[in-house]
Amino acid sequence: MNMLAFPRAPVVVEIIYDLVCPWCFIGTRRLLRMMRRRPDIDMAVEWRPFLLNPDMPRSGMSRSAYIQRKFGAEDRARRLFATITEFGRGEGIAFRFDLIRTTPSSVDAHRLVHFAAGFDRGEVVANAIFVAYFCEGQDIGAYDVLLGIGRAAGLPLAETKAFLASDMATDLVHADNLRAHRLGINGAPCFILGRRHAIAGAQEPEVLECLLNVAIFDLSMSESE
């Protein structure tokens, strides 16, 4: 038995994330950087929605009202944003929290990532939504903004329009959010490798690679039994 053999099936990498979470932006950048360092491993990414603000109106709310509700004092929020901005620089992310005027519901943005994944464009669209919101201050709950992101990512225009105008995959977003909570996940980001090994937070690539190695070993052992 070769205990170091790579698994025959792809290692499934589940990204539990929210598109209005700056740590998710940082964390997914680090995860994808780790994956690029391991071209020897076949990995299949699944984007799993998590709703940090499940009661957010679909129209969103003003940024100032959201900050007041979530943080209480603006000074506290400013200190946190400064810390996040510093970490973001290390991942090539230029956070511009000052440009954000609306805190949106992320349901429709999650729906678009799900739709894009069917065209193998999930990663591209998720990153574009993160950039639009955190670096450009766009309202990623707005139909026109999401349609523009989909179009720039090369998604078929007519199908994307019809999808965004519908309620398709809305139940899926809420089901994935519920699934995460049932698994004991109470925040984002969280990454699950090989369906069994989970780690929370925006971890460094080296930490994520260690977990990947554990998942590979576990899967290899299962296949050899």
UniProtKB/TrEMBL annotation:
<dbReference type="Pfam" id="PF01323">
    <property type="entry name" value="DSBA"/>
</dbReference>
<protein>
    <submittedName>
        <fullName>DsbA family oxidoreductase</fullName>
    </submittedName>
</protein>
<dbReference type="InterPro" id="IPR036249">
    <property type="entry name" value="Thioredoxin-like_sf"/>
</dbReference>
<feature type="domain" description="DSBA-like thioredoxin">
    <location>
        <begin position="13"/>
        <end position="210"/>
    </location>
</feature>
<dbReference type="GO" id="GO:0016491">
    <property type="term" value="F:oxidoreductase activity"/>
</dbReference>
<dbReference type="InterPro" id="IPR001853">
    <property type="entry name" value="DSBA-like_thioredoxin_dom"/>
</dbReference>
